[in-house]
Amino acid sequence: MWAVAPSVDAGVSAAARVKNQLIARRGLFGPLEEAGRVTVVSASAGAGKTSLVRCWIAESGLSEQVAWVSVAREARDPQAFWLAVLDALRGTRAGSELVRELTAAPSVHGWTIVRRLAEDLSALEEPLWLVMDDLDELEDEDAVRQFEELLAAAPTSLRFVLLTRRDLRLGLHRLRLEGELTEIRGEDLRFTVAESRDLLEAAGVRLSDEALESLVTTTEGWAAGLRLAALSMAKRPDPESLAAGFSGRERTVAEYLFAEVLQRQPEEVTRLLLRTSVLERVSGPLADRLTGNSGSERILMELEDARAFVVAVDPERMWFRYHHLFADLLGLELRRTAPEEVPELHGAAAGWLAEHGYPVEAIRHAQAAEDWGLAARLLADNWLSLYLDGRQPIVHALPARFPDSVMAADAELAVVAAGDMRAAGLLGEAERYLKLAASLAASVSEERRGRFTGQLVFARLAVARARNDPEAVAEEAERLLALTEASESAEFEFRKDLQVTALTYLAIAETWAGRHEEAEQKLERVLAEARRMGRPWLELQALSHLAVTGIARSPAIGERRAREALELARVHGWDESAGAVVTASVLLGRVLVWRARLQDAELWLDRAERVLRHFAEHTQAVMVYAVRALLEFARGRDAEAVAASRQAERMEGLLVTSPFLEMRARAINLQVMVALGESERVAQALAAMDEETRNAPEMRLVIARLRLANEDPESAVEALAPVLDGSSPWAPWWEAQALLLEAIGRDALGDLGASSRAVERALELAEPDGVLLPFLLMPAPELLERHARLRGTHASLISEILNLRSGHAPPQQPEDSNPLDEPLTPSELRILQYLPTNLQVPEIAAELFLSVNTVRTHIRHLFAKLGAHGRTDAVARARKLGLLAASTRARRGRAED
Q: Which of 179, 560, 584, 848 is such that its CA lies 20 to 30 A from the CA of 114?
């Protein structure tokens, strides 16, 4: 029969059979209140359609203006349907006066009732709502057409709210074009975390944030699932554990889904759902393979249209997935009814997916089928491609699913395992697997031998790079290049990729060896090739290490490259899975430490450490701990600085060659030890170095500081002479340190003029990039104060330095402060980063691969938008707006016209 609900309190949705909770979802009330003539609420069973509308009616005080009809599944009589509609309308305040009573009779047809009803309601003036619940149950074609007629003929004051599990053909497209249709879909009805908390707490269940988010993810915000979970957890002493493990296998959930969804399907559909439940996603052709039938695509589309917990995952509706809880139920039912079919289904899925170019899914299904031979071959064939695509987490997860006995007996899998161990930072294990692979090489078939050899050399190259062993990197890179150039077979389909990767690793090794000019040339080639080939993973490696070479020349150059790398990683979703992100993040942290923006620097170092936990790289770990030591020392947290320094030294001991930049960090750490009074340990460390290292400019700074601490200023000045004679270029912040040490030494020797000149030169070097840290680390505040009194130059910068020494942080600008009439373009922002540097227009043009005229044009546009009259003015204005890193006064350099 047709069920009529005369009031909000009568009758509830199927989900409310579990617990009748009406949660006020006021965020969805707006669309209902502002709706046009027709509102469609279309979603799956238990999505909360009925409870949403009932709650809205109750809170809006519309009970006397709403006619509610629940279409019962058992009824198929159009006359009974229309009589139920009439009775519901007569139960409202307005309808009781306008709608004439009608009794059932053989002569009363649906068309007659619709025309009579439209006539009765023509005089309707106040709004009246007709809610049709479970309208998808209206299967009689005549009744559907008659209802469509009522939609067209009814007065505008009659509003329709249609609750359905699937869309009906009611000509609603015309209303959509006229703006008279409001649609609320399943995705709109998903409960948010906040709404889920309200629902659970109404049932007396309180969860931690983590457990609640896990439950909402599992249920996908499905109202019935949350209510069923609430009912189960209300009876448990430990609701947290149930929330963590909640699934479609939970008895109440399984019973609900079985009765409301699965049991309603024809046998053909049920067979498809069960046999494809082994898949994470399913397409029509794949389902045809697993069922042995045709027409699966049509069935999947119809199931999605019917909101039967089937969701399309692409705009073309080629691939579908099942709701998490529904997938759990299907898997449970398959194992209950046909457990012997599960391995066979996984095997069939693996075969189809491998044939159609979905290797990762194919490997997983082959592993699930325990077809280790197929799984091993597929992984060996595809792991290098996955690596070059930047899919590191997948490359890491797949080998772990093989039994140890299989891994130990397969040469190609041993190579994959070696790469996986290298990525995890377990270099000893990586080398063990490489030896195992070499010992099993004879077992590799002839047709696969070339591919195996190339992958083995590639894995050795990767391990050599991780150990920071330049000689081994050069040797293995040369071997790999020779292999790829000599072979023309299909097994080297990634020939060009391997060649560019070999070049990348060579450049990285040169970067950490301090051969920056050679490294930059190779990295620029890699960057161009990676972009041409469409290999963003290789592009990311190039950008992050160009940041390393760039920072040695200018913080602005290094910072720009690092930010480019981080943006590229963000776009491709590699924020937490790429070692290059560590490199770029720690370099930004380093720049900010040098600028004395310690709080901002810590955020970048924290990020680098977080990513490092997922992608262990010893070279990067050394960088992170070394910069952390510098940060902590600048903060005056000496114990933390020493701990971080020792961590850096421990990681450095795992490398064949110390990273070039980290020798500089090590020099800073030794200076920290001098400042902490550990002069004897520093002297021992210096004595243990070879002569070349001890005479490096960075170590001469340590020697000078140690001799000043030992009250030997003459020897300190003597130690600095080779690095201040102008014979080799030095980064400004390192030269500034050397000059400050010289100033201290000259002052102690009574040469006040030379001391003042050294301070002046240090200030000149530091000001363009806002490099303040050397003045915080060097114990010479009295020299700065005297310089300000006697010379009067750099007064603002000196004042800021003295404020920092007294504990005041540099002023920060809010990130969103950009009150420009016209925003800067990306090209203008890129050029803006160079204006505070000493680089002139031709040099900036060379850095950006632009013409000089183009750069001049962009600079003119920059000046106009910033309201600036020259380069110095533009830099000051940009820093004030937060478009450039906060600094001191802009460089008093030549203004570009």
A: 179
